[in-house]
Amino acid sequence: MITLSLTTPSNAAGAVALVQLHGQGVKSLLAELCDRQSWDDGCVYLCDFAGIDEGLAVCLNDQWAQLMPHGGLRVIELLTDKLISMNCHLKPPSNRELYPEAASDFEADMLATLALSPSPAAVDLLLAQSENWSRDDLDFSHIATDTQQLDQLCHMPSVVLVGPANVGKSTLTNRILGYAASIVADLPGTTRDWVGGMTQLRGVAVRWMDTPGIRISDDDVEQQAIGLAKQVIDEADVLVYMSDLQNGFEAANLTNRKPDILTLNKVDALTDDDAAQLPKQLLPISSTTGQGLGELVEAILKQLGLHQIDAQTPWAFSDRLKRIVSQRDTVTLQQYMQ
Ligand SMILES: Nc1nc2c(ncn2[C@@H]2O[C@H](COP(=O)(O)OP(=O)(O)OP(=O)(O)O)[C@@H](O)[C@H]2O)c(=O)[nH]1
Ligand SMILES: [Mg+2]
What we know:
Strand content: 15-25%
Mean pLDDT: 89
CATH superfamily of the largest domain: P-loop containing nucleotide triphosphate hydrolases
CATH topology of the largest domain: Rossmann fold
Radius of gyration: 27 Å
CATH architecture of the largest domain: 3-Layer(aba) Sandwich
Structural class: alpha/beta
Number of strands: 14
Shape: elongated
Order of helices and strands: EEEHEEEEHEHHHHHEHEEHEEHEHHH
Bound molecules: guanosine-5'-triphosphate, magnesium ion
Strand order of the largest sheet: 4-5-6-3-1-8
């Protein structure tokens, strides 16, 4: 049986597609498809694929060939049908097929994870994994607790900013995102819908979201927008509550979720003595001067469990590694890494 997998493009048109063929008899299949008898390993030939398209073909060894036709959807459809009619079996590509340069299944899964990771912090960590998992003193019980937090490096956690109207949420959002994503005005109720963007907090990619100020009003549109924001709030990985000197923290009770971090904004208007009197559970910040924002970033990363990412931490970044950890299966780990 020869398996056929399309690695590029995935269900979309592209300049060139890559069709991988694996299995016994790959060379005779190519001989029939391309009407060419001799196939030297590693040599690239310009071929006619059964009158469907012209493209490049290469046999990497007796069981592995790659075809590179044009990537138009119709060409791919016709070629796939033709290969299926020649007894090929269509299956999604494995990471090993997607990353032929990988020396092991472990390395192929690592490269696939790397391609999906939006966080720069994930890069060094993933590249160090081969060494981390080869260590003699590997402690499985320690890995089990660490791994979920590190998975957030691939899935972009959400940080949602809530609080009363006019406290400075949009001002902070624009500063953190580095562009004017949200309208700022000295007018309560300015933000009418939640606004989000991607940003990095010390190398960790997060989705940052600004929400309409929470307040009771008889404006129907505003209440609907607050209602919509509640869903974003409920699903937040980190909920940051902001207030200022005019507003208290009572509105925190209006959300279903308890905030993870309480910030007091506009402390640039306070004297140092007044600032020193603030309750310890409040993080004093200023969205306009940037005061306290470093501490806020650290508090968010701490809440995510990503404030201290040691490159030497083994990370169970694939389902297979997670199974290996849960079963404490060192034999399978060795096979996976070979
Ligand atoms: N002094 C001072 N003023 C600030 C600070 N942050 C925001 N402001 C001002 O506060 C006002 C409201 O800012 P916004 O960012 O629009 O507030 P908001 O919380 O998004 O308001 P809504 O969208 O109505 O909920 C604007 O005039 C800002 O310039 C700060 O750190 N210090
Ligand atoms: Mg706003």
